[in-house]
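Lab channel / #folding
Pinned by the channel admin:
"Please post every new chain as: sequence first, then the structure tokens as a reply. Keep commentary short and put observations after the output so the thread stays searchable."

First post following the new format, from NK:
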Amino acid sequence: MAYHFSKSRYCNGVQCPKMLWMKEHFPEEFDDSVMNQAVLQTGNEVGDLAMGLFGDFIEVPFDKENLGAMLTKTQELLDAGTKVVCEASFSYEGCFCSVDILKNCGNNVVELYEVKSSSGVKDVYLDDVSYQYYVLSKLGFTVRKACLVYINTQYVRHGELELDKLFNIKDLTAIAKDRLGEVESKIAELRQYLEQAEEPAMAVGSQCSVPYKCGYFAHCAKGVLKDGERSVFDIHGMEQADKQAFFDQGFITFEDLYKAGVLKGKYLQQVEFEVKDMPPHIDAGEIRGFVKKISFPLYFLDFETFNPAVPLYDGSRPYQQIVFQYSLHYMEKEGGELKHKEFLASPGTDPRRQVAEQLCKDIPLNVCTTAYNRAFEKTQIKELAALYPDLSEHLTNIRDRIEDLMVPFQKRWYYTKEMQGSYSIKNVLPALFPDDPSLNYHNLEGVHNGGEASSAFLTMQKMDKDELKKWRGYLLKYCGLDTFAMVKVWEKLQEAAGLRF
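Reply from TO:
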């Protein structure tokens, strides 16, 4: 059987040949939760925009069912002297590729440009470009340039988009040329690997997550771990290389690691708490000192943001976080009524001025505000203050008085095994309130996390009136739960400090 390759299949094979074998023989085992749809969508949008980088172009229509038609159309365009062809498609001995942007320089001389929505050059991109260089070179083309096109995060938009400034271009021709023999050998090696009738043995390792998380990890790990058993790869915050080193030494499960005594600090704490099923650790003294810094009137603030790869507004950069919503629970005095305010910008317009103005109305000067992971909220407020000098004094006053409810969990003054080594509120909240459905994000409709909130806001401008109303409700409930959860966490910290009964 002749196995065919594409850019993605080749790069998958470089990462792990068993990934390719599984796709060929057991595609149903793939866990598609590893696929980040928002990232894929961003990649498509950036790719479409980059097509105009060199002026007028003609795109070869994608036809999954008839790749031959794409090959034919490409050749017709080249024969006609078309200067820029996007998605130009080629095949050499079962190795197919569509070049994002192909410059036709005449006399079989071309330049190829691979477009990525990334902000930098990754090793896997070198494999991608080298594969395309190999295919075109084998077909007799002189590839004058083989380049990577990626996002320039230093670009600031002013008026119409300037594609030549939005994108960086990295010339990888020398690298691709040097790898010609390597690509040819790898393709032959992968074809031989795919011929195996029985499932190949392949140890779980770094290739399971670098450069991309593999959807077959659960399948491959079955031979190593029992159902539900925790492994070294579940240790929160540890470098992947260090996890792999422990795995290679035979320290695979939490039990293995604990018995061997090879862990220290927070990594040991996570493993020990889970292996020994330990009760919560609460340092009441440290927590009491923290809680006493929080004063009334007291505000609980949470922002929702989106970060488009292509800047939508003047004065914004690629991937800059743009605040479009906030929730604010507050109490004017100790023991007072818990009140709530919220703001959600109108979709399709720059939301930053609206957010800044309303925030200054909703949070008075010289009050205590709390956030969970305050660095995020403080950064957004700082950027708003720089953008709007007339609001700067008030915004800076808010920013300078934000306390961080994350600190007691980050410092491990309050820790339970259910937190699984993480101090994210998405781990802390269910650990503190396991049986409270009102604090369970899974019970929400439509929006359950920040990524979904960002995607929802970006798509709202295309919705009709009824759909828009429904999704506004979803967003408001989600963000409202974020700050209500902070209130409950603060109350739990008061209890731990012996200041609330």
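NK: The chain is about 45% helix and 15% strand.
TO: also worth noting, The longest helix spans residues 465-496.
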